[in-house]
Amino acid sequence: MKVGLLTGGGDCPGLNAVIRSVVRRIANAGGECVGVLEGWRGLVRGNTRPLSVAETDALIGLGGTILGSSRTNPYKNPETDVPLLRRHFAALELDALVVIGGDDTLGVAVRLINDFELPIVGIPKTIDNDLRLVDFSFGFDTAVNVVVESVERLRTTAESHRRVIVVETMGRSTGWIACFAGMAVGADYILVPEVPIDAPHLLGVLKHHRTPFKNHAIVMVAEGARYTDPELLALEPRPFSHPRLGGIGASIAEIIERQTRIETRTVVLGHLQRGGAPTAHDRILATRFGLAAGELVLQRRFGTVVTLKDARISETSLNTSALANCPLDLGFYQDAATFFYEPHEPKTKE
Ligand code: F6P
């Protein structure tokens, strides 16, 4: 059996661990793997590389993806790119293709399955943790840990200068990273796309946060968080001509400083969250996802995608509804928000 592998969309810690584990599962069954370079672009252009156990065995802790990635969508130019992709797929004599990606990359896989019955098995990947297919995706834990480590560094300087520091995290449409990391660092406030920004409430919390025990504050904000108050919309960053996000942290910091007079700084963690070695949790999850996908390929159960529900790895049909977005579970947000409020502790008698 000859199996192609590709990684598409934004990269994510754990991708190499997945590659390693698919290669091993297929090789153990006597098959061979070939890497398609830079996501769907590699199939459109016919760019590949061999993938042996020897080449991939040491990859478990390596960040990024040795196959490279891109956001190429062959259906943007369907008359030219889709036929090229099919021609290269046939020329490579692939029996199966394992596609590792988020909703965009797997969305292309769905179309190729529907249009041409390509023998595809999908593996979900997202640091944002925004796919319903999985309770938690590999890469997410690593991202949360990067944010936690960074905020712990930021907290000491915030304390020295009695400042508010606004930390902007990734999370295009969901607040999983901001909420989980915020909870882990004991953030004073967390802003997520699922809950419209209530600036008066945020300012009220910050005005009262200074106590004899605490002179600084950490505000976490997911890049996709948005205002509802029309007066504040004017402070929103101008939309870019492309959908790249970022800037909400600076906007929030400006409001805080202007309204509270507390010196405020912003840090955008950006791609730091996607780089570097995966945590042990993500290495294990990625390894198990790869083995599960390899098994589906060997059983010729094409048109499926690996899932993680209630801590169990399984699979489901790879179709558009399977790729639905998964907003932050607001139960987590409410737990984190408990710590935004002033406690009504009984006053201790002198
Ligand atoms: O989709 C994952 C993600 O990490 C988003 O949180 C972020 O907005 C985006 O990727 C950044 O993508 P790029 O690497 O293309 O700038």
Sequence-ordered SSE layout with sheet pairings:
Layout: E1 2-7, H1 15-28, E2 32-36, H2 40-45, E3 48-51, H3 53-56, H4 81-91, E4 96-101, H5 103-116, E5 120-124, H6 140-161, E6 164-169, H7 176-185, E7 189-191, H8 199-207, E8 217-222, H9 230-233, H10 248-260, E9 264-268, H11 280-298, E10 304-309, E11 312-317, H12 330-337
Parallel strand pairs: 1-2, 1-4, 4-5, 5-10, 6-8, 6-9, 7-8
Antiparallel strand pairs: 2-3, 10-11
Bound molecules: 6-O-phosphono-beta-D-fructofuranose (F6P).
6-O-phosphono-beta-D-fructofuranose binds next to loops.
What does this structure look like?
The chain is α/β, with parallel strands linked by helices and 350 residues long. Helices cover 38% and strands 17% of the residues. The chain is built from 12 helices and 11 strands. It has helices at 15-28, 40-45, 53-56, 81-91, 103-116, 140-161, 176-185, 199-207, 230-233, 248-260, 280-298, 330-337; strands at 2-7, 32-36, 48-51, 96-101, 120-124, 164-169, 189-191, 217-222, 264-268, 304-309, 312-317. It has a 7-stranded mixed beta sheet, with helices on both faces. Helix 1 (15-28) links the parallel strand 1 and strand 2. Helix 1 runs parallel beside helix 11 (280-298) and helix 7 (176-185) packs parallel to helix 12 (330-337). The longest helix is centred in the middle third of the chain and has 22 residues, at 140-161. The radius of gyration is 23 Å and the shape is elongated. Bound molecules: 6-O-phosphono-beta-D-fructofuranose (F6P). 6-O-phosphono-beta-D-fructofuranose is lined by residues 10, 127-128, 170-172, 223, 244-245, 274.
